[in-house]
Amino acid sequence: MNIIFMGPPGAGKGTQAERIVQQFNIPHISTGDAFRAAMSQETALGLEAKKYVNQGLLVPDEITIGIVNERLKQNDCAEGFLLDGFPRTISQADALATILAQDGKQISFVINLKVNRNLLLDRLTGRRICKSCGATFHLVFNPTTVPGVCDKCSGELYQRADDTVEKVGTRLDEYEKWTSPLLEYYSAKGTLKEVNGELEIEVVTKQIDEILRGPAE
Ligand code: ADP
Ligand code: ADP
Ligand code: ZN
């Protein structure tokens, strides 16, 4: 199954992706995670991406498409994959369709997580991430047992540099401008499924799971 998770920053794409890939045993491909890994290792890609990511702007299509193209060629994607945060522009979506068509593949489902803007702000400014394993938590909505310490691996939690009120505003504007037109794009193809992302984490997972598995007999 070839899945795309769409939704504005803070909608819960990463949180839901972590859960869904376990159930379906497919790789979780997050372009945001790929950029952050390259940035922390200070590779050429990381240094270039940093200029955009830390300002809350989208990384240019050429760079982003190149990363996804390489990743999708790897063997673990043969039986399916979950793309989290890609595509974010129409050009990226067109490129993805071309890449998949070369292997006779297509997108099975595009899941769009819908969350209102005020809630997105609260979610993003309270988001905390584990330095060691990348797990995502929230100070209020999904707190760890011990403050500042990851429940999964006891790693140290940090706040992303782009999760400040100011950068969040830019990111939501980028979403409106570049990414929201994709809803119509995938709706026209008949692959778009809307999910209410404001519900509790477990409830959202259940709804996504039902869409992916199809209606119960
Ligand atoms: P995205 O990947 O779409 O940016 P995340 O999965 O990182 O979003 O979630 C953003 C923040 O909101 C995180 O701190 C996460 O713990 C929290 N969160 C995610 N889903 C929910 C939910 N359904 N209810 C409450 N908080 C949530
Ligand atoms: P969020 O969880 O808030 O949706 P991500 O972790 O997915 O954010 O992405 C963080 C940043 O990485 C984005 O603000 C952008 O700078 C860059 N990025 C991630 N995916 C893409 C993409 N498909 N196209 C361009 N830039 C991207
Ligand atoms: Zn951890």
Give the CATH topology of the domain at 2-26 and 79-115 and 172-213. Rossmann fold
Strands of the widest sheet, in order across it, are 2-3-1-4-8
Percent range for helical residues? 40-55%
CATH class of the domain at 2-26 and 79-115 and 172-213: Alpha Beta
> Which strand-content bin applies to the residues?
5-15%
Tell me the series of helices and strands, N- to C-terminal: EHEHHHEHEHEEEHHEH
Considering the protein shown, what is the CATH homologous superfamily of the domain at 2-26 and 79-115 and 172-213? Answer: P-loop containing nucleotide triphosphate hydrolases
> Architecture of the domain at 2-26 and 79-115 and 172-213, CATH level 2?
3-Layer(aba) Sandwich
Q: Helix- and strand-based class?
A: alpha/beta
Biggest pleated sheet: 5 strands, parallel
Mean pLDDT: 96
